[in-house]
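Bug report

Summary: structure tokens for Helix-turn-helix transcriptional regulator differ between web form and batch submission.
Environment: batch mode, default settings.
Steps: 1) Submit the sequence below via batch. 2) Compare with the web form result.

Sequence submitted:
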Amino acid sequence: MGPDSHLLTATDDKRGWLAHGDGVAPHRHADGQLLYPSAGVLATTTERGTWVAPPNRVVWTPPGFEHGHRAYGQTDVRVVEMARGLCASLPDRPMVFSVSPLLREVLLVLTGGRALRPGARDRLREVAVDELADLGEEDLYLPEPADDRLRAVTGLLHADPANPSTLAQLGRTVGASERTLSRLFRTELGMSFHRWRSLLRVQHALVRLVEGDAVIDTATRLGWANPTSFIEAFTAVVGQTPGRYQAELRRGDR
């Protein structure tokens, strides 16, 4: 854990840099938190799955919900504390939201160390809640199953996201039928096998691009049939092409 990792567990609005690979062990907060990586990528993990936030996303963690963090790339983390009275208007589970221009400015002001007039900080938090209520959930959440058969399949894919095996082939490896596994993906995780694997690969792509891998190399190493398929999948989830995303990361490092 890097020297600034404690900044994610303090009790006031703050800003801190995490080095690549720095992590924060699972913990809970009495209040809620918004975590905005204005540079780098922040992964938040719970027993339910993993949420990944690049610089155009913000992670919400509700009060009392155990979670841990890991940074990918030099990550500038902005942390905004949300008192329980405001948390009632926000989801009761972790979530990733897009960052509107207004929300971004609110988060930067709250964590910028600037002295604010009495009551201004609370009013800015209320603005943040209003913005989040209108934005809706993003697709950068990868759920994890409870069923042992499904966990065996997802475990194989976590170990090798580029694994090209079909669901039937994976099923033979773990001793479950394709039909059973397909049903479990739908009922437990709320998505198809192909959708889950695509989200897994996109999460890994976010990290590889932060580390400086080329778009074509990222597509190949993560198992996409061709760069076009990767670009389409990445853009559908992240809202911008991998090339534009990587260019914005480089601008943020200057």
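Above is the batch result. After comparison, the two runs are identical; trailing whitespace caused the diff. The CA atoms of residues 77 and 144 lie 25 Å apart. The beta strands are 14-18, 23-27, 32-46, 49-53, 57-61, 67-82, 95-98, 141-143.
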